[in-house]
């Protein structure tokens, strides 16, 4: 790999900016006296995000007792933090759409949606208070792959070569490039000024024992590995020993694991259309 490409990746000085709607929502919510009216005004200008939020609010992922009919109801029902995370997650879809179209980009997006949903369901089972954060981490955890695919020639071909093998993409990147998609993705969300929990969890989602926020990062690592085992990732590598270790740590027995899988399959069938590129 040529040194100039590696240098560009390590400097990471030309990464995409946070989409405008997400940036405005974060700026509003950072005000101690923000108003719902201002929040509704900003979000409603993006019809795609507005429609998606309403569909999500009415989906099995959140299971409202009555139909959510407008954005004000959705914000009241979901809460400001949840709305912020959903806007960021939905906004990242435009990044995938703006990069060169390929099967890799499509598969990374589908995997990211799956990890987000699975992580939220796991969190609801073991620690409800962090379910929204792990949903967003799941959506963002592999952003570094689309950046590396832009910078590195034959990156997609390298992934194709290790598919079906026991090779880890994370370890292969370290070997070939001395930088990983986890590091690149972490740097991207740092530049977006998202809270440190997100950059940390993204950076260590393949090595959660090194994370400052293990409670969050381990759930995303677990979800990533389980979905890889179920052929819902761009590579075949998984680690069944690590899956079992984390499952025991979470206190997830066979019955609970089956319940999580069943709920995931039900929710994902609906949500994958909503998040479709």
Automatic annotation (TrEMBL):
Top-level taxon: Bacteria
Record domain HDOD: where: 15-208
The keyword Hydrolase is assigned to this record: yes
Molecular-function annotations in GO: hydrolase activity
Keywords: Hydrolase
Stored PANTHER family: PTHR33525, RIBONUCLEASE Y
Annotated protein name in UniProt: Metal dependent phosphohydrolase
Lineage: Bacteria, Pseudomonadati, Deferribacterota, Deferribacteres, Deferribacterales
């Amino acid at each position: 790999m040529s040194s100039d490409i590696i240098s560009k990746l390590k400097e990471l000085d030309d990464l995409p900016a946070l989409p405008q709607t997400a940036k405005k929502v974060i700026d509003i919510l950072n005000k101690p006296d923000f108003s719902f009216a201002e929040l509704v005004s900003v979000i409603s200008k993006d019809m795609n995000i507005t429609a998606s939020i309403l569909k999500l609010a009415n989906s099995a992922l959140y299971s409202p007792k009555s139909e959510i009919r407008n954005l004000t109801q959705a914000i009241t029902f979901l809460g400001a933090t949840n709305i912020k995370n959903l806007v960021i997650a939905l906004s990242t879809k435009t990044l995938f759409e703006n990069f060169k179209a390929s099967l890799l980009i499509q598969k990374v997006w589908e995997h990211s949606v799956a990890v987000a949903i699975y992580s939220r369901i796991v969190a609801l089972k073991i620690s409800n208070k962090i379910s929204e954060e792990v949903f967003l981490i799941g959506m963002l955890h592999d952003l570094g792959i689309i950046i590396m695919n832009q910078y590195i020639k034959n990156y997609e071909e390298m992934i194709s070569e290790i598919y079906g093998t026991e090779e880890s993409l994370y370890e292969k990147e370290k070997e070939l490039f001395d930088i990983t998609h986890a590091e690149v993705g972490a740097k991207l969300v740092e530049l977006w000024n998202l809270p440190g929990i997100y950059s940390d969890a993204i950076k260590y989602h393949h090595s959660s024992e090194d994370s400052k926020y293990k409670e969050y990062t381990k759930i995303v690592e677990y979800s990533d590995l389980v979905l890889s085992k179920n052929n819902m990732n761009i590579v075949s590598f998984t680690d069944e020993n690590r899956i079992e270790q984390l499952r025991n740590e979470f206190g997830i027995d066979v019955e609970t694991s089956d319940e999580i899988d069943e709920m995931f399959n039900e929710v994902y069938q609906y949500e994958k259309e909503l998040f479709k590129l």
